[in-house]
Every structure is written in structure tokens, then in C-alpha cells.
Amino acid sequence: MRVDHYVHFDPLIITEQSAASVDALAALTAAVNDLRKDIETMSATQSQLDADIADLQSKVAANTSESQSAVTLMNGIPGMISDAVSKAVAAGASPTQLAAITALGDALAANTTGLAGAVTANTPSAPTA
Questions:
Q1: Which stretches of 91-122 are DSSP H helices?
Q2: Tens-digit pLDDT profile for the chain (129 aa)?
Q3: Domain for residue 17, yes or no?
Q4: What residues make up the domain containing 17?
Q5: Total number of domains in the chain
Q6: Quick check: pTM over 0.90?
Q7: Is residue 71 part of a domain?
Q8: Are 67 and 123 in contact (CB under 8 A)?
């Protein structure tokens, strides 16, 4: 926001009465200049605050996306292990040979709900506009 204030007077026509008016006008001009500086400072502060809020919103959105990605990953790993075990059995591996990896997949599947809940619970909510 720009505020311009110009005062012009002829210094050769100053009388006693007009001298008081000139002094009052000078004081008013100084007050207007001070207000202009305050407005510029507030505008700069507001711009910085807007930038800080936008940065924070971006960080929260990224955090939310990363948390959702982690939940998706946790939900997908047990299925990937199960698919790999099925392919290994089809290729000739015995269930005994695959027991350890099958147990790992089962343990991950059992714990995924709790882990996904913990990630979601510890993710800050997206800011409201």
C-alpha cells in the first residue's frame, strides 16, 4: 500500500497566525509520515507471516502424504510376501523351506493395523483454511 502526502506553502507569506498554522501543518505532516512508515512495516510483517504460514502448510501436507505412504507400504508388504511365497511354492519350494518368510509375513500382517494406527495418530492434521 502506498500513501503519498505533499504539502506546499510559500515561505515568504508567513505571518504570526500562519506561522502557527505552518507549525501545526508540519506536525500533521510528521504524523502522516510516521503512519506511512508504520503501514509499510505492517505490510512487510504481513508478507513474511503469509510466507511462513504457506511454508508450514506445505510441511504439514508433505508430512501427511509421507505418513499415508508409510501406511500404504505397511499394508502392502504382507501381501507382497504372500505373493512371493505362492510363486516360490509354484516353482517347487516346499512350505518347510518357506516357513520363516511365511511367519514374517504373518507377523507383519498382524502388526500392520497397530503400526498404521500409530502413524496416523502421530500425524498432525492438515490445517484448515
A1: 99-121
A2: 677 767 666 666 556 666 677 788 888 889 988 888 888 888 888 888 788 878 877 776 776 677 777 777 777 788 888 888 888 888 888 888 888 888 888 888 888 777 777 777 776 666 665
A3: yes
A4: 11-121
A5: 1
A6: no
A7: yes
A8: yes
